[in-house]
Amino acid sequence: MSRGPFVAALVGNPNAGKSALFNALTGARQKIANYPGVTVERKAGRLLLPSGEPVELVDLPGSYGFAATSPDEEVTRKVIMGEQAGQVQPDVLVIVLDASNLEQHLVFAQEVLELGRPTVVALNMVDLAARDGLTIDPAALAVELGVPVIETVAVRRKGLVELAAAIAVARDSAASEAAPVPRAHVTLPERRLLARQMAQGATLSETARHRIHARMDRLLLHPWAGPPVLFALLFVVFQAVFTWAAPFQDALDGLASALQDLVRSELPASLLRDLLTDGIIGGVGAVIVFLPQILILFFFILVMEATGYMARAAFLMDRLMAGVGLSGRSFIPLLSSFACAIPGIMATRSITDPKDRLTTILIAPLMTCSARLPVYAVIIAAFIPNTRVLPGVGLQGLVLFGLYVAGIVGAMVVALVLRRSVTKGAASGFIMELPKYQLPTVKDLALGLWQRAWVFLRRAGTMIFTVTVVLWLLLNFPRAEPGKSQVDASIAGHVANGLAVVMEPIGFNRDIALALIPSMAAREVAVSSLATSYAVDTNDEAVEGRALGDQLKHHWTLATALAFLAWFVFAPQCMSTIAVTRRETNGWKWPGFMLAYLFGLAYLFAGLTYWIAVACGLG
Ligand SMILES: Nc1nc2c(ncn2[C@@H]2O[C@H](COP(=O)(O)OP(=O)(O)OP(=O)(O)O)[C@@H](O)[C@H]2O)c(=O)[nH]1
Ligand SMILES: [Mg+2]
I need a surface site. Which of 25, 171, 176, 388 has the fewest CB within 10 A? Predict the structure, then answer.
């Protein structure tokens, strides 16, 4: 019988370390192509046996079972069964197991072993198992599985020679045996039970903590159960942002009003008094009331990071991100962008693939940064009734959650489009180690929250303060004739009236146009400039005292409010984001592209929202 070299294939669950083993075993002797007819990568390379004889080693996509339906898993099944076009059936199967996750990995391993083909098991990641206080006896496992078991640490090149030798032995037995001897078929629940028994039987020692952590991972990283848990958690976070913050916000609001009243009663009526009350206290105060909501959001983010859950979320997201041509590597930069796009864009430096990185930079502004929270919150509080949709689920929190989701979905769609057009190229792999679960320490949490509060207050005291005062000046000069609108007469009013022509089709009035320009300096200024401009234009003392929310309800329709929210989901972020994009991409091309596509999307979606809302009778 004459044929090509012997073929061995690496099979196992996702993240068992197959590709790491493949790279370690084949080195530079690799070929990468696509399987004919499918877009799943075919990775094959040459492994030299201890005798010097070559074996073709094939790295298969990770799989949870033969019944699975994803194109990747379908290829894995077909290759093993010898049904895949362009691929000879492997003579030897190398099952790769994650020793620190043995029970879970043994489920699919049994299904592969049922085929009765010549098989070797690589018990990989024994270093991680040892770190977690877990010792596994390879000899005992070999008895239970009925095939040789070799301990490996792919990333440290440990056990590679022994594995190659075992492959050689299995290959010799394959040559001498006439046909595979299939084992009895068992059902999935039986396989799960057996997996637990075998894992327990082969485990020499295990700490109680490891047992609990392994159980948590089994749930939180589960391909079906994991994402709903993540989603539910985020949902709770956004509900909390509204419900927990309310009393603190009321207190801050009361403080600002009291301060305004104090200034009004102490100073004689003058422009200076107006600057203090309407400009500074009104404008900056309108932003500062959102401190509690920002701190609650960060409290959750910090807890998720400190406990080790965030890395697991990245791990879960890796599969979803792969769907849009990105990897889990983009998850951390994108997550940082929920605080602010600037650190997020800077964090993309850890992404090695240039096209991955560029795509991540371009979509980072679609993640809802914390500066947008005040804008969303003020509009939602004014226009969305504070009703319960379900027990414990408020409509306001739900809308906020929806806005965040809209940003994420928008980002994923944009990534998908970009990866097929401007940043076309193959997706790169994801390498990440999961940290141990830990209880967060109160000190670290307090420190993290304090830093966040400080960043926010400093912004309010410097950038937002300056922009608010400048806007107030532009709104107050030149002075209007008595009885005429001050905003219409002012410099800012003239500019806004010009811009309003463009914005009118999407339901934006002059006040909004006025707020949009300074909000390019900092998002929160949209809130303070609305507060300032309504204060400047009211002479009636009774109306002047009204909260911003009441003013908005007075001047805007629901359709306009919804369009405004949609605008803020997509509109380009502040100037600093554009500047940092220029720096990170070395030129004006990509920041220019970013501005253009984000303005385009913002206009389109604000318009769609407005027209649909008007058509539904909300105008
Ligand atoms: N500490 C440690 N890490 C490992 C070991 N083997 C692999 N890894 C790491 O585990 C992660 C997953 O490894 P991969 O080789 O990509 O896993 P895979 O089985 O090819 O995964 P899929 O292709 O998704 O099925 C990577 O971050 C590897 O660096 C090991 O023995 N020890
Ligand atoms: Mg792989």
Answer: 176
Give, for 393, the enclosing helix (H) or strand (E).
strand 393-394
- Please tell me the distance from the alpha carbon of residue 521 to that of residue 544, in angstroms, as a whole number: 26
Spatial neighbors of 588 by CB under 8 A, at least 6 apart, are 582
413 within some domain: yes
Weakest mean pLDDT among 89-98, 409-418, 526-535: 526-535
CA atoms of 470 and 474, how far apart (whole Å)? 6
Could you give the CA distance from residue 501 to residue 230 in angstroms, rounded to a whole number? 43
Check whether 150 has a pLDDT greater than 90. yes
Does any ligand 1 atom lie closer than 6 A to the CB of residue 535? no
Task: Pick from 155, 156, 320 the residue to mutate for probing ligand 1's pocket: most ligand atoms within 8 Å of its CB.
Answer: 155
Secondary structure (3-state) at 369: coil
Which band of pLDDT confidence, cut at 50, 70 and 90, is reported for residue 545? low
Which amino acid is residue 509, in one-letter code?
Answer: N
Alpha carbon distance 154, 587 (integer Å)? 41
Mean pLDDT of 4-9: 88
Are 295 and 186 members of one domain?
no
Q: Which domain holds residue 501?
A: 227-427+441-615
Whether 382 lines ligand 1, by a CB cut-off of 6 Å, is no
What predicted TM-score, i.e. pTM, was given to this entire model?
A: 0.63
- Which pLDDT score is estimated for 543? 55
Read off the pLDDT of residues 14-51 as tens digits, 9 standing for 90 and up. Answer: 889 999 999 999 987 778 777 777 777 888 999 999 88
Neighbours of ion ligand 2 (CB under 5 A): 18-19
d(CA 421, CA 214): 41
Residue 597 and residue 414 in contact, taking contact as beta carbons nearer than 8 Å: yes
Q: What percent of the chain has pLDDT over 90?
A: 37
Does the beta carbon of 468 lie inside 6 Å of ligand 1? no
Rounded to the nearest angstrom, the distance between the alpha carbon of 244 and the centre of ligand 2 is 44
Q: Which of 179, 194, 220 is the last residue of a domain?
A: 220
State the CB neighbour count (10 A cutoff) for residue 267. Answer: 13
Q: Which residue has the tokens 């929210």?
A: 565
Residue 184: is its pLDDT beyond 70?
yes
Q: Are residues 407 and 476 in the same domain?
A: yes
- Which H or E element spans position 7? strand 6-11
Q: Which is more confident, 456 or 163?
A: 163
Measured by CA distance, the residue closest to atom 30 of ligand 1 is 125
Model ipTM value? 0.98
With a 6 A CB cut-off, is 372 part of the ligand 1 pocket? no
Mean pLDDT over each residue of the chain, to the nearest integer: 86
Alpha-carbon distances, residue 230 vs 221, 227, 310, 482 (angstroms): 10, 5, 10, 58
φ and ψ of 521, to 5 deg: -80, -45
Backbone angles phi, psi at 7, to 5 degrees: -115, 130
How far from the centroid of its chain's Cα atoms is residue 114's Cα?
A: 39
Establish whether residue 314 lines the binding site of ligand 1, counting it when its CB lies within 6 angstroms of any ligand atom. Answer: no
Q: Domain count for the chain, please give it.
A: 2
Q: Are 405 and 477 part of one and the same domain?
A: yes
Instruction: Point out the ligand nearest to the CA of residue 322.
Output: 1
Alpha helices in 308-427 (DSSP H): 309-323, 331-336, 341-347, 354-363, 372-383, 395-420
Residue 233 lies in a domain: yes
pLDDT of residue 542: 54
